[in-house]
Here is the input.
Amino acid sequence: MKRKSSIILIMIFLISMQCGIFESKNHPPKIVSINATPLELSYGEYSRLSIVATDEDNDKLTYTWSSEHGYLDGVSGTSVVWHPPGPPSVPGKYTIQCIVSDGKDTVKGSVSINIIS
Here is the structure.
């Protein structure tokens, strides 16, 4: 009887493991801040972008930057440099995004830069 009970418990445990019942829940990363310095510039100037993010599970974070306009010196890491489109530059507001991933979940942050000339 003990052997039968032990086998049943082992089977329940193995089935539970495959179903993910005992897996710990992943927490998505959290963006603490995303900044651009300066926030306003002219053609020929550039802006330094930086992001700070945390992960409650202490998972390794990856950072992927993107912009539909202008270009980035690098697209990964916690800081990059963004150059406005041009010449000639078109005044307006441009948004640069950063996706932060812990390998399981992702979050997006963005910052807008104003081009004055």
